[in-house]
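Archive entry: two folds, one per protein. Generate the first.
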Amino acid sequence: MATDLNDLSAFVSVAEAGGFRDAARLGRVSASSLSGAVRRLEAKLGVRLLNRTTRSVAPTEAGARLLERLRPALGEIGAAMDVVNAFRDRPAGTLRLNVPGVAAHLVLPAIVAPFLKAYPDIRLEVIVEDSFVDVLAAGCDAGIRYDERLEQDMIAIPIGPRVQRFATAASPDYLKTRGRPKHPRDLLEHACLRGQFSSGAMPPWEFERDGEVVKVDPTGPLVVRIAAAADLAVSAAIAGLGIVYIFEEWLRPHFDSGALEPVLVPWWQDFSGPFLYYPGRRHLPAPLRAFVDFIRS
């Protein structure tokens, strides 16, 4: 039974995205074309592959079995087609990266422009997510995360600064009015601008000096989503609303301008920088291979 490969690909993209609109957005095609492709495939096979409701789309039992077999098969076809890239003067195609907000703000700006200038036939898509994510299930080629959040069975290479620090800072006016904390526990008596993950968790502020680790859970007038709204917390600190705790690189321009002053510097804790991680398969898509080589060089 001859079946259009594009119809099979459309079914996989809709099933993985959980809907026609999301699949259309990710694939930059129309939802109606995907719907038509799935209908043709179902008509040809004589079985319903997707259960459709007004809110979601999910594979039927038959669809789930087909999806299970198609994923590796289409992956192999994509890898086979990508082999041709090796015979081009310059690699071409799309590279999709899944990165946390802090990497989009602090790591990628120094990398994206020179990479795309070196490889003008590559199109880079950056998806910003701060939660744990399966990069392959999310339709991405690679991700950037810190070592404690790396997925298992992945190759990881350093990207960006190798050592980073969380820093605390406040405006000169705030410190003049409220005083300067001398120990992390003093923060419990100060107005602190907190960050919160999308899950609702609010991580404590952690400090270290001479082997002593201190974690505090201060309160204050503002809570923002970590990374996504970090600039709002920094702006609030500049306005004198309280003390902010964030990556040192994020604050460096404001230290240089005098808008913010470092607080508790001897207690700032070092940690290892981020990693680019990707599946450890033998053949990498040409855009990913070019990016890996670029980062390593």
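Generate the second and append.
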Amino acid sequence: MKRYTHILFDHDGVLVDTEPLYFRATQTCVADLGVDLRLPQYLAMMAEGRNAWELARQLGASEFDIEQARERRNSLYRELLDSEPIDIAGVEDVLANLALNYRIAIVTTSRTEDFELIHRNRDIVSLVDFVLTRDAYEHSKPHPDPYLKALERFGIEPDVALAVEDSQRGLRSAIAAGLDCAVVYNRFTSDHDFSQATYQITRLADLIPHVLNRS
């Protein structure tokens, strides 16, 4: 049986419940450019690694206008992060338990500024070996770059590591990097196709009895 020694965690939707807030901020700011962004469309684009600014370009928005709207989105998102609850119950306990036997990293598409804001008053980062944010690699998920960078940083081959994701985009990234992947249920991304996942679990705590004890 395969034995994992390392666990590579996605961040948004797995360790903190931030994805609905990012959608709300994006939906509000692309509306300024004439885009009526609905959740199913957003999720479909997300699965493919695309973004809503493509829709604004199709409507004739200039790159200047898009950049201004993007900056407004980033600002609004930070406001929401400061004012809305985003904790997922039990995450720190799970990480603390896993850290006794596994090397752990966070591999996220979050911007460094947003990540630091999220973890300003949380202890999650202290429980992992390192964090890779968006500026640490060239191509974002669903490309394999984020996970390949994590494997390189640890100096390991993919067969000893397990990725933990909640989106189809993240799952595709993990698979492309040669990793097994456990997908944890997230209501926000529950319509994504997870048929290629190695494991599907209901909550993060299920990693321990249902996945890692098999390794």
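Annotation attached to the second fold: The chain has a mean pLDDT of 95. Residues 6-17+87-214 form a domain with the Rossmann fold fold (CATH 3.40.50.1000).
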